[in-house]
Amino acid sequence: MSRCRMVLFAGIAALVSATAASADTTPQALPFAQDWSNIGLITTDDSWSGVPGLTGLLGDFPLGIDIDPQTVVAPGSGTVDVNANQTNPNTNTSGGVAEFELTNPTVALQGSATADAPNVILYLNTTTQSAVTVSYKLRDIDGSADDAVQQVALQYRVGSSGNFTNVPAGYVADATTGPSLAALVTPVNVTLPSAAGNKAEVQVRIITTNATGSDEWVGVDDISVTGGASAVVLSSFAATRTTKGTLLRWHAAVESHTLGYNVYRVVNGKRVRLNRTLIRACTTSVAGGTHSFVDRAARRGVFWLQSVGLDGSRAWHGSASV
């Protein structure tokens, strides 16, 4: 009977632990924003269930000290972490992720021997969106005598598995000052590579690493993610030789605010327009479609597409060759 009770108690403990470490990783539609002004979002240690689309991770990688976070692209252990309801970053020496209920509340990162690369991850749905832009403020909130070189990097991946891709434009060599200073605010504003557009799930990671000496708390605040309104996102563009010439076919997953297309062939190093009238887009709202054009004057060559927006803007897509 005692043995059964031990198993039952162990099961209850596991259930409590699983409940405590929780998160809502449902990808959120754009625009996405979080400024931490609502301190009721995080009330329990290691629970992000009140913050849809955002999670903090301990980052317990087997790393050394002063590792460039841009090089830490592996997913890591996935240990959910947050020290909730904290009020004094000057005396809090815990590594990982913490929620600080300051005059201007924020969530912050601090490396340590056990939190080699603490990070926060945004879970986003960028369907129908292009030019995905991520912005946030890195705040030095640590006014203690600590004066570490606190590097911070920005990364992303498409889907929920595999390594992340570093975004060099989002790297900050040192987001803190000191000692006994806590005023530096470093804005980050970066447009992700086009691969992040029009995807059911994109994960964006903001990550720091364990520095030499005593690490400082870096707030990640005023997070905003937006997408471009006008763009064509091609999923395919191919040229095929036929008896009647060259058949060009392309499929646009997104045709947001797009009027239509022009087709060009490269002749003597220059792009020459082939269509007399604009090839109309399937829609001017968001959803895309499949289009085709036959170049009857050539059975081989290099071809380009030009999309034309409702505002007259133009963009090149390609090339395709046969």
Protein model, in words:
Helices cover 6% and strands 45% of the residues. The termini are far apart. By secondary structure, it is mainly beta. Residues 1-20 have low confidence and may be disordered. The chain has one helix and 23 strands. It is elongated.
Quick description:
The protein is mainly β and 322 residues long. The chain is 6% helix and 45% strand. A hairpin with a 6-residue loop joins β11 (152-158) and β12 (165-166).
| Percent range for β-strand residues | 35-45%
Structural class: mainly beta
What ranges have pLDDT less than 50 throughout 5 or more consecutive residues?
Answer: 1-20
Output the helix-strand order: HEEEEEEEEEEEEEEEEEEEEEEE
Summarize the amount of helix as a percent range: under 10%
Rg, alpha carbons:
25 Å
Large-scale geometry: elongated
List keywords for this structure.
45% strand, mainly beta, disordered N terminus, 23 strands, elongated, 1 helix
